[in-house]
What does this fold into?
Amino acid sequence: MASAPRPATFGGIPQILDVLKEQGYIADRALATSVHLSIVLNKPLLIEGEAGVGKTEVAKVMARALGTDLIRLQCYEGLDVHTALYEWNYQRQMLRIKLEEASLRPVEDKEHVIFSEPFLLKRPLLQAITAERAPVLLIDEVDRADEEFEAFLLEVLSDFQVSIPEIGTITARQIPYVVLTSNRTRELSDALRRRCLYLWIDYPSFEKELRIVHSKVPAINDRLAEQICAFMQLVRTVPLSKVPGIAETLDWSAALLALHREHLDAQAVEETLGCLCKDQEDLVRVRAQYLAPIVDAVRTAGPATDGWNPERIASLAAQLPKPR
Ligand SMILES: Nc1ncnc2c1ncn2[C@@H]1O[C@H](COP(=O)(O)OP(=O)(O)OP(=O)(O)O)[C@@H](O)[C@H]1O
Ligand SMILES: [Mg+2]
It folds into this structure.
Protein backbone atom coordinates (compact mmCIF):
# COMPACT_ATOMS: atom_id res chain seq x y z
CA MET A 1 0.00 0.00 0.00
CA ALA A 2 1.51 3.36 -1.04
CA SER A 3 1.57 6.19 1.49
CA ALA A 4 -1.16 8.77 1.05
CA PRO A 5 -0.21 12.45 0.74
CA ARG A 6 -0.40 14.43 3.94
CA PRO A 7 -3.07 17.09 4.23
CA ALA A 8 -2.11 20.67 3.31
CA THR A 9 -0.52 22.39 6.28
CA PHE A 10 0.49 25.79 7.59
CA GLY A 11 0.88 27.96 4.49
CA GLY A 12 4.00 30.09 4.16
CA ILE A 13 6.78 31.15 6.51
CA PRO A 14 4.98 34.19 8.03
CA GLN A 15 2.05 31.92 8.92
CA ILE A 16 4.42 29.43 10.52
CA LEU A 17 5.97 32.19 12.62
CA ASP A 18 2.49 33.24 13.76
CA VAL A 19 1.31 29.69 14.46
CA LEU A 20 4.44 28.84 16.46
CA LYS A 21 4.01 32.07 18.43
CA GLU A 22 0.39 31.20 19.18
CA GLN A 23 1.72 27.93 20.61
CA GLY A 24 4.17 29.86 22.81
CA TYR A 25 7.27 29.23 20.69
CA ILE A 26 9.31 32.25 19.66
CA ALA A 27 10.99 31.38 16.38
CA ASP A 28 13.14 33.29 13.93
CA ARG A 29 12.82 33.13 10.16
CA ALA A 30 15.53 30.51 9.80
CA LEU A 31 13.68 28.11 12.10
CA ALA A 32 10.31 28.77 10.46
CA THR A 33 11.89 28.21 7.03
CA SER A 34 13.34 24.87 8.13
CA VAL A 35 10.00 23.73 9.52
CA HIS A 36 8.26 24.84 6.33
CA LEU A 37 10.73 23.05 4.04
CA SER A 38 10.72 19.91 6.11
CA ILE A 39 6.94 19.77 5.73
CA VAL A 40 6.71 20.59 2.03
CA LEU A 41 9.75 18.55 0.97
CA ASN A 42 8.71 15.61 3.15
CA LYS A 43 12.14 15.46 4.77
CA PRO A 44 13.07 14.80 8.40
CA LEU A 45 14.36 17.86 10.24
CA LEU A 46 17.56 17.30 12.21
CA ILE A 47 17.98 19.90 14.93
CA GLU A 48 21.26 20.31 16.75
CA GLY A 49 22.19 22.75 19.48
CA GLU A 50 23.39 23.03 23.05
CA ALA A 51 21.29 21.79 25.96
CA GLY A 52 18.07 23.62 26.69
CA VAL A 53 17.89 25.84 23.60
CA GLY A 54 14.47 24.63 22.45
CA LYS A 55 15.13 21.65 20.15
CA THR A 56 12.60 19.20 21.58
CA GLU A 57 10.03 21.95 21.93
CA VAL A 58 9.97 22.46 18.13
CA ALA A 59 8.43 19.00 17.66
CA LYS A 60 5.96 19.56 20.49
CA VAL A 61 4.70 22.86 19.09
CA MET A 62 4.60 21.47 15.54
CA ALA A 63 2.28 18.70 16.73
CA ARG A 64 0.04 21.17 18.56
CA ALA A 65 0.01 23.56 15.64
CA LEU A 66 -0.79 20.82 13.12
CA GLY A 67 -3.42 19.42 15.49
CA THR A 68 -1.86 15.98 15.30
CA ASP A 69 -0.30 13.48 17.69
CA LEU A 70 3.25 13.69 18.94
CA ILE A 71 4.95 10.33 19.05
CA ARG A 72 8.25 10.43 20.87
CA LEU A 73 11.12 8.01 20.66
CA GLN A 74 13.58 8.90 23.40
CA CYS A 75 17.00 7.55 22.44
CA TYR A 76 19.57 6.20 24.85
CA GLU A 77 22.61 3.97 24.77
CA GLY A 78 21.55 0.38 24.17
CA LEU A 79 18.17 1.29 22.65
CA ASP A 80 17.28 -1.66 20.45
CA VAL A 81 15.04 -2.20 17.47
CA HIS A 82 12.35 -3.97 19.51
CA THR A 83 11.96 -1.18 22.01
CA ALA A 84 11.69 1.29 19.13
CA LEU A 85 9.52 -0.70 16.72
CA TYR A 86 7.43 -3.52 18.15
CA GLU A 87 7.35 -6.42 20.56
CA TRP A 88 5.04 -9.39 20.76
CA ASN A 89 2.63 -9.27 23.65
CA TYR A 90 3.79 -12.52 25.26
CA GLN A 91 1.30 -12.47 28.10
CA ARG A 92 -1.60 -12.09 25.73
CA GLN A 93 -0.20 -14.79 23.48
CA MET A 94 0.19 -17.17 26.44
CA LEU A 95 -3.33 -16.48 27.57
CA ARG A 96 -4.64 -17.21 24.09
CA ILE A 97 -2.66 -20.43 23.90
CA LYS A 98 -4.16 -21.53 27.23
CA LEU A 99 -7.67 -20.66 26.10
CA GLU A 100 -7.18 -22.62 22.89
CA GLU A 101 -5.66 -25.69 24.56
CA ALA A 102 -8.81 -27.73 24.18
CA SER A 103 -9.51 -26.51 20.66
CA LEU A 104 -9.03 -28.88 17.76
CA ARG A 105 -7.90 -26.15 15.38
CA PRO A 106 -4.68 -26.92 13.47
CA VAL A 107 -1.51 -25.61 15.10
CA GLU A 108 -0.75 -23.40 12.06
CA ASP A 109 -4.06 -21.61 12.51
CA LYS A 110 -3.42 -21.08 16.20
CA GLU A 111 0.02 -19.69 15.42
CA HIS A 112 -1.36 -17.45 12.75
CA VAL A 113 -3.71 -15.90 15.29
CA ILE A 114 -1.17 -15.22 18.01
CA PHE A 115 1.26 -13.69 15.54
CA SER A 116 -1.23 -11.22 14.14
CA GLU A 117 -1.62 -7.48 14.64
CA PRO A 118 -3.81 -7.58 17.79
CA PHE A 119 -0.95 -9.36 19.56
CA LEU A 120 1.62 -6.70 18.61
CA LEU A 121 2.79 -4.11 21.09
CA LYS A 122 3.45 -1.13 18.87
CA ARG A 123 6.43 0.93 19.96
CA PRO A 124 6.94 4.52 18.77
CA LEU A 125 8.22 3.86 15.22
CA LEU A 126 5.45 1.40 14.41
CA GLN A 127 2.87 3.65 16.05
CA ALA A 128 4.02 6.49 13.79
CA ILE A 129 3.91 4.31 10.68
CA THR A 130 0.46 2.88 11.37
CA ALA A 131 -1.17 6.12 12.56
CA GLU A 132 -4.33 7.07 10.64
CA ARG A 133 -3.19 10.64 10.38
CA ALA A 134 0.44 11.79 9.91
CA PRO A 135 1.77 12.36 13.43
CA VAL A 136 4.87 14.31 14.41
CA LEU A 137 7.52 11.68 15.13
CA LEU A 138 10.13 13.06 17.51
CA ILE A 139 13.34 11.04 17.61
CA ASP A 140 14.86 12.77 20.58
CA GLU A 141 18.59 12.83 21.39
CA VAL A 142 19.48 10.50 18.54
CA ASP A 143 23.18 11.00 19.33
CA ARG A 144 22.68 8.89 22.48
CA ALA A 145 21.65 5.81 20.48
CA ASP A 146 24.30 3.46 19.09
CA GLU A 147 25.53 3.61 15.53
CA GLU A 148 23.80 0.29 14.68
CA PHE A 149 20.51 1.75 15.78
CA GLU A 150 21.16 4.81 13.65
CA ALA A 151 21.67 2.55 10.63
CA PHE A 152 18.33 0.87 11.29
CA LEU A 153 16.69 4.27 11.67
CA LEU A 154 18.01 5.25 8.25
CA GLU A 155 16.14 2.38 6.68
CA VAL A 156 12.91 3.32 8.40
CA LEU A 157 13.28 6.97 7.46
CA SER A 158 13.92 6.21 3.82
CA ASP A 159 10.99 3.87 3.18
CA PHE A 160 8.58 4.38 6.05
CA GLN A 161 7.84 0.74 5.92
CA VAL A 162 8.81 -2.12 8.16
CA SER A 163 8.82 -5.85 7.67
CA ILE A 164 7.52 -8.06 10.41
CA PRO A 165 8.38 -11.65 9.45
CA GLU A 166 5.12 -13.15 10.76
CA ILE A 167 2.88 -10.45 9.28
CA GLY A 168 4.58 -8.97 6.24
CA THR A 169 5.42 -5.42 5.23
CA ILE A 170 3.61 -2.53 6.82
CA THR A 171 3.79 0.77 4.93
CA ALA A 172 3.00 4.16 6.44
CA ARG A 173 -0.53 5.34 5.76
CA GLN A 174 0.75 8.89 5.77
CA ILE A 175 4.41 9.88 6.05
CA PRO A 176 4.97 11.27 9.55
CA TYR A 177 6.51 14.68 10.13
CA VAL A 178 9.88 13.69 11.52
CA VAL A 179 12.02 15.78 13.88
CA LEU A 180 15.35 14.45 15.17
CA THR A 181 17.31 16.23 17.85
CA SER A 182 20.94 15.87 18.86
CA ASN A 183 23.16 17.41 21.53
CA ARG A 184 26.25 16.31 19.60
CA THR A 185 27.56 13.91 22.23
CA ARG A 186 28.77 11.95 19.20
CA GLU A 187 28.99 12.67 15.48
CA LEU A 188 26.02 11.42 13.50
CA SER A 189 26.67 9.56 10.27
CA ASP A 190 26.87 11.42 6.98
CA ALA A 191 24.15 9.14 5.64
CA LEU A 192 21.71 10.28 8.33
CA ARG A 193 22.64 13.92 7.83
CA ARG A 194 22.15 13.65 4.08
CA ARG A 195 18.67 12.32 4.57
CA CYS A 196 17.61 15.29 6.71
CA LEU A 197 17.28 19.04 6.56
CA TYR A 198 19.55 20.59 9.15
CA LEU A 199 18.87 23.31 11.70
CA TRP A 200 21.30 24.61 14.28
CA ILE A 201 19.73 26.41 17.26
CA ASP A 202 22.14 28.71 19.02
CA TYR A 203 21.78 30.30 22.42
CA PRO A 204 19.18 33.02 21.97
CA SER A 205 19.94 36.70 21.47
CA PHE A 206 18.95 39.04 24.30
CA GLU A 207 15.91 40.12 22.34
CA LYS A 208 14.72 36.59 21.56
CA GLU A 209 15.19 35.43 25.14
CA LEU A 210 13.27 38.44 26.43
CA ARG A 211 10.35 37.57 24.16
CA ILE A 212 10.47 33.97 25.37
CA VAL A 213 10.45 35.04 29.03
CA HIS A 214 7.48 37.35 28.45
CA SER A 215 5.65 34.62 26.57
CA LYS A 216 6.29 31.84 29.12
CA VAL A 217 6.30 33.84 32.38
CA PRO A 218 3.80 36.59 31.52
CA ALA A 219 3.43 37.87 35.09
CA ILE A 220 7.04 39.06 35.27
CA ASN A 221 7.73 42.82 35.15
CA ASP A 222 9.65 44.31 32.22
CA ARG A 223 12.64 45.50 34.22
CA LEU A 224 13.25 42.18 35.97
CA ALA A 225 12.81 40.26 32.70
CA GLU A 226 15.40 42.50 31.01
CA GLN A 227 17.83 42.12 33.88
CA ILE A 228 17.46 38.34 33.87
CA CYS A 229 18.10 38.15 30.12
CA ALA A 230 21.08 40.51 30.34
CA PHE A 231 22.49 38.41 33.19
CA MET A 232 22.07 35.28 31.06
CA GLN A 233 23.86 36.84 28.09
CA LEU A 234 26.82 37.70 30.30
CA VAL A 235 26.95 34.50 32.31
CA ARG A 236 27.07 32.51 29.05
CA THR A 237 30.33 34.26 28.15
CA VAL A 238 32.17 32.90 31.21
CA PRO A 239 33.78 29.44 31.25
CA LEU A 240 31.24 27.00 32.70
CA SER A 241 30.97 23.27 32.31
CA LYS A 242 27.18 23.47 31.92
CA VAL A 243 26.20 26.68 30.17
CA PRO A 244 22.60 27.53 31.14
CA GLY A 245 20.02 27.34 28.37
CA ILE A 246 16.54 28.80 27.96
CA ALA A 247 15.11 26.15 30.28
CA GLU A 248 17.25 27.62 33.10
CA THR A 249 16.25 31.18 32.22
CA LEU A 250 12.59 30.22 32.48
CA ASP A 251 13.06 28.35 35.77
CA TRP A 252 14.99 31.26 37.17
CA SER A 253 12.37 33.80 36.06
CA ALA A 254 9.61 31.74 37.67
CA ALA A 255 11.67 31.39 40.87
CA LEU A 256 12.35 35.13 41.17
CA LEU A 257 8.69 35.83 40.52
CA ALA A 258 7.66 33.34 43.21
CA LEU A 259 10.01 35.09 45.63
CA HIS A 260 8.37 38.44 44.76
CA ARG A 261 11.60 39.98 43.46
CA GLU A 262 11.12 43.19 41.50
CA HIS A 263 14.69 43.53 40.28
CA LEU A 264 18.01 41.70 40.38
CA ASP A 265 20.44 42.20 43.20
CA ALA A 266 23.34 40.11 44.44
CA GLN A 267 21.29 38.55 47.23
CA ALA A 268 18.44 37.51 44.93
CA VAL A 269 20.90 35.90 42.53
CA GLU A 270 22.78 34.21 45.35
CA GLU A 271 19.58 32.69 46.74
CA THR A 272 18.43 31.34 43.38
CA LEU A 273 21.73 30.42 41.75
CA GLY A 274 20.78 26.74 41.75
CA CYS A 275 18.21 27.53 39.03
CA LEU A 276 21.04 28.55 36.71
CA CYS A 277 24.07 26.54 37.65
CA LYS A 278 23.47 22.80 37.70
CA ASP A 279 27.03 21.84 38.50
CA GLN A 280 28.87 22.21 41.80
CA GLU A 281 32.05 23.69 40.32
CA ASP A 282 30.08 26.16 38.21
CA LEU A 283 28.15 27.22 41.31
CA VAL A 284 31.34 27.89 43.23
CA ARG A 285 32.98 29.69 40.31
CA VAL A 286 30.02 31.96 39.55
CA ARG A 287 29.49 32.76 43.21
CA ALA A 288 33.15 33.57 43.83
CA GLN A 289 34.14 35.37 40.65
CA TYR A 290 31.25 36.47 38.50
CA LEU A 291 28.07 37.01 40.45
CA ALA A 292 28.81 40.49 41.81
CA PRO A 293 30.45 41.89 38.63
CA ILE A 294 27.61 40.62 36.40
CA VAL A 295 24.92 41.98 38.72
CA ASP A 296 26.77 45.34 38.75
CA ALA A 297 27.07 45.38 34.98
CA VAL A 298 23.38 44.56 34.56
CA ARG A 299 22.21 47.16 37.08
CA THR A 300 24.41 50.00 35.90
CA ALA A 301 23.99 49.28 32.20
CA GLY A 302 20.40 50.52 32.28
CA PRO A 303 17.30 49.40 30.43
CA ALA A 304 17.09 47.53 27.17
CA THR A 305 15.92 50.63 25.32
CA ASP A 306 19.61 51.54 25.19
CA GLY A 307 20.07 48.31 23.23
CA TRP A 308 21.48 45.08 24.59
CA ASN A 309 23.10 44.33 21.28
CA PRO A 310 25.95 41.84 20.80
CA GLU A 311 28.58 44.62 20.78
CA ARG A 312 27.44 45.95 24.11
CA ILE A 313 27.32 42.46 25.59
CA ALA A 314 30.82 41.72 24.25
CA SER A 315 32.20 44.93 25.71
CA LEU A 316 30.64 44.25 29.14
CA ALA A 317 31.82 40.64 28.99
CA ALA A 318 35.37 41.85 28.29
CA GLN A 319 35.29 43.75 31.59
CA LEU A 320 34.42 40.66 33.65
CA PRO A 321 37.23 39.05 35.66
CA LYS A 322 39.50 36.76 33.68
CA PRO A 323 39.17 33.04 34.54
CA ARG A 324 41.51 31.99 37.34
N1 LIG B 1 12.03 29.68 21.17
C1 LIG B 1 11.39 29.33 22.28
N2 LIG B 1 10.18 29.85 22.58
C2 LIG B 1 9.55 29.50 23.73
N3 LIG B 1 10.04 28.63 24.64
C3 LIG B 1 11.23 28.09 24.39
C4 LIG B 1 11.97 28.41 23.21
N4 LIG B 1 13.11 27.72 23.23
C5 LIG B 1 13.11 27.01 24.37
N5 LIG B 1 11.97 27.21 25.07
C6 LIG B 1 11.63 26.62 26.36
O1 LIG B 1 12.86 26.23 26.96
C7 LIG B 1 12.73 24.96 27.59
C8 LIG B 1 13.77 24.01 27.03
O2 LIG B 1 13.45 23.65 25.73
P1 LIG B 1 13.73 22.19 25.16
O3 LIG B 1 13.44 21.16 26.17
O4 LIG B 1 13.05 22.10 23.84
O5 LIG B 1 15.32 22.28 24.96
P2 LIG B 1 16.28 21.21 24.30
O6 LIG B 1 17.14 21.97 23.35
O7 LIG B 1 15.51 20.06 23.78
O8 LIG B 1 17.14 20.80 25.57
P3 LIG B 1 17.90 19.42 25.88
O9 LIG B 1 19.09 19.43 24.98
O10 LIG B 1 18.27 19.56 27.32
O11 LIG B 1 16.95 18.31 25.60
C9 LIG B 1 11.31 24.49 27.36
O12 LIG B 1 10.56 24.80 28.51
C10 LIG B 1 10.83 25.33 26.20
O13 LIG B 1 9.47 25.60 26.31
MG1 LIG C 1 15.51 18.05 24.32
User: Anything to note?
Assistant: The beta strands are 45-49, 70-74, 86-88, 120-122, 136-140, 161-164, 168-171, 177-182, 197-201. The chain has three domains: 13-77+128-201, 86-122, 206-316.
